[in-house]
């Protein structure tokens, strides 16, 4: 017995020593190779997704003489989260995302996040419209298309929540034109496959917003990248993986890059580094060694969708219909059945279904999660895991799903769906932020977060949704955080040209909403609705049926004369 206890004790001791050695290991094993350039370049961007490319587009317009280098580990841009097949393609505007509008203990609806999200998406529209006019983005229909957004609920209790949500939102200019209905015929007009074959006794409620959009973020990324390449001061390096980040005494950074095609390393010195590498951003932030990055960990979650491409289905469903997550489920579990247009073809996607993985990127390594754990974040990650049992339970349930289970979930939103109608695809990887917040302690944080060094020489973007749909606002916030003097000074005129209303609150000014939306709608070939200066009676203003709506123009010019 004593011998057995000694053996067990010895094994435990070895494991504890091994764990300590692992957690206390250095972030970087290499030294600081000498840079090949004596004079530092102005900017190095890591990652070829929509975030880095958007920031590069700003910089090219604001400082066209700056020497900017972008490094992407894959052989094309927009092959990870920005790719059209790796996200839901929603232009997140708060129109249908009910998790953005929680019900408070007193029964009121908090719409703050929905207002913030729609405001940021309006900035996205302004930025993309500006780039279309400059010729840096192609024909708008290749990357953004009118696709109404619906919120759909079942049962009297949730219908009442949706009604209160609609009343709260439509009192604001940016949500004017949203309709609410519990009439099965009306809802069927909005989304035929949602109601076809449904039990007539089932209580269904829905809101419908004709100003919603479907966005191909991969197409935007590729378009902006083509525009960047026309500037000889911009340099794109594909199949190049950043493996080292070392700060010099003069606050510049030596960035060591491995050329995957040539199988060789080289080092470039830069005044500023932006880490916009999606799921890989956390590990690169850790590699930088800045104190601001030591409070973070990450939890990877993959996504899967059911894809339907039969025209008999895809051509009948031209809305994005968002449901509600089950009580106690995480926000990432919100079911939605989406009209998508990818490379000119119509699809319907339903999901998401979570995919358990230790990868931080779709094309990443199974060791990604483990290699991101250190002594400074392991406690935070363990506590968040213990505090978020609902997420752990949800992921376990998702791992056990069969095709029959997925078919049953699809039938809740598409009653006549057949198993032969769909195929299962794996979408992108997301890394949820785990943070040791100074005030709240260990938290699992949804959304995106900009982390920058105190000296503003390096910044990283962590997190996920709404992500790509608000990428211009996020990149603009990066500029304000690391280049505050230029934003307030010599860049102000050019930024004002992109965002005429940047210092004003759109949601407080119907006339301003009308002016901005008409301008961006004309440029992007999207519909708009004129908001009355007096919103009294807004709930009585009915948007036209989506099957008769024009591809662009004022939706109330004939049918909603005010």
TrEMBL record:
Biased composition (Polar residues): 553-562
Root EC class: oxidoreductase
Cofactor annotation: FAD
Organism lineage: Bacteria, Pseudomonadati, Pseudomonadota, Alphaproteobacteria, Sphingomonadales
EC number: 1.1.5.4
Protein name per UniProt: Probable malate:quinone oxidoreductase
Region entry Disordered, spans: 539-562
GO molecular function: L-malate dehydrogenase (quinone) activity
Pathway listed: Carbohydrate metabolism; tricarboxylic acid cycle; oxaloacetate from (S)-malate (quinone route): step 1/1
Keyword set, alphabetical order: FAD, Flavoprotein, Oxidoreductase, Tricarboxylic acid cycle
Similarity-based family: Belongs to the MQO family.
Catalytic activity: (S)-malate + a quinone = a quinol + oxaloacetate
Domain of life per record: Bacteria
A Pfam family that the UniProt record links to this protein: Mqo
InterPro entries: FAD/NAD-bd_sf, MQO
């Amino acid at each position: 017995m004593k011998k057995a206890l000694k053996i067990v004790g010895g094994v435990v001791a070895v494991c504890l020593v091994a764990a300590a050695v692992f957690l206390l290991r250095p972030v970087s094993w290499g030294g600081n190779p000498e840079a090949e350039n004596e004079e530092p370049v102005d900017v190095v961007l890591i990652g070829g997704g929509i975030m880095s490319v958007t920031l590069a587009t700003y910089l090219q317009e604001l400082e066209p003489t700056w020497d900017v280098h972008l490094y992407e580990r894959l052989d094309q841009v927009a092959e990870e989260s920005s790719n059209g097949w790796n996200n839901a393609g929603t232009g997140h505007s708060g129109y249908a995302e009910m998790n953005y509008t929680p019900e408070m203990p007193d029964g009121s609806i908090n719409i703050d996040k929905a207002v913030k999200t729609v405001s940021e998406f309006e900035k996205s529209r302004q930025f993309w419209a500006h780039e279309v006019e400059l010729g840096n983005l192609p024909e708008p229909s290749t990357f953004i298309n009118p696709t109404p957004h619906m919120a759909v609920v079942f049962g009297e209790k949730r219908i009442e929540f949706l009604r209160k949500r609609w009343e709260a939102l439509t009192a604001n200019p940016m949500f004017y034109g949203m309709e609410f209905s519990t009439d099965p015929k009306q809802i069927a007009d909005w989304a035929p496959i949602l109601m076809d074959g449904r039990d007539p006794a089932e209580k269904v409620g829905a809101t419908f917003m004709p100003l919603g959009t479907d966005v191909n973020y991969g197409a935007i990324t590729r378009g902006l990248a083509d525009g960047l390449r026309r500037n000889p001061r911009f340099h794109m390096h594909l199949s190049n993986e950043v493996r080292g980040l070392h700060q010099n005494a003069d606050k510049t950074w030596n960035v060591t890059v491995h050329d995957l095609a040539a199988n060789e390393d080289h080092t470039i010195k830069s005044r500023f580094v932006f880490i916009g590498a999606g799921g890989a951003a956390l590990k690169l932030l850790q590699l930088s060694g800045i104190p601001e990055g030591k409070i973070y960990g990450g939890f990877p979650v993959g996504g899967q969708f059911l894809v339907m491409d039969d025209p008999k289905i895809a051509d009948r469903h031209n809305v994005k219909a968002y449901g509600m997550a089950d009580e106690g489920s995480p926000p990432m579990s919100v079911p939605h059945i989406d009209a998508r247009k990818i490379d000119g073809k119509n699809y319907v996607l339903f999901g998401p279904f979570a995919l358990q993985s230790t990868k931080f990127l779709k094309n990443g390594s199974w060791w990604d999660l483990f290699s991101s754990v250190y002594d400074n974040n392991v406690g935070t990650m363990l506590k968040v895991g213990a505090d978020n049992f609902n997420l752990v339970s949800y992921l376990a349930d998702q791992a056990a799903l069969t095709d029959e289970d997925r078919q049953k979930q699809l039938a809740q939103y598409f009653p006549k769906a057949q198993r032969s109608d769909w195929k299962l695809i794996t979408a992108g990887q997301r890394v949820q932020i785990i943070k040791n917040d100074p005030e709240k302690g260990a938290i699992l944080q949804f959304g995106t977060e900009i982390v920058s060094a105190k000296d503003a020489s390096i910044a990283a973007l962590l997190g996920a949704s709404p992500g790509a749909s608000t990428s211009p606002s996020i990149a603009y916030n990066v500029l304000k955080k690391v280049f505050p003097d230029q934003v307030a000074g010599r860049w102000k005129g050019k930024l004002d040209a992109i965002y005429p209303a940047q210092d004003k609150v759109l949601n407080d000014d119907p006339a301003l909403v009308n002016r901005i939306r008409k301008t961006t709608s004309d440029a992007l070939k999207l519909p708009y609705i004129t908001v009355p200066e007096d919103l009294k009676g807004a709930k009585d203003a009915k948007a036209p049926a989506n099957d008769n709506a024009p591809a662009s123009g004022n939706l109330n010019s004939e049918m909603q004369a005010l």
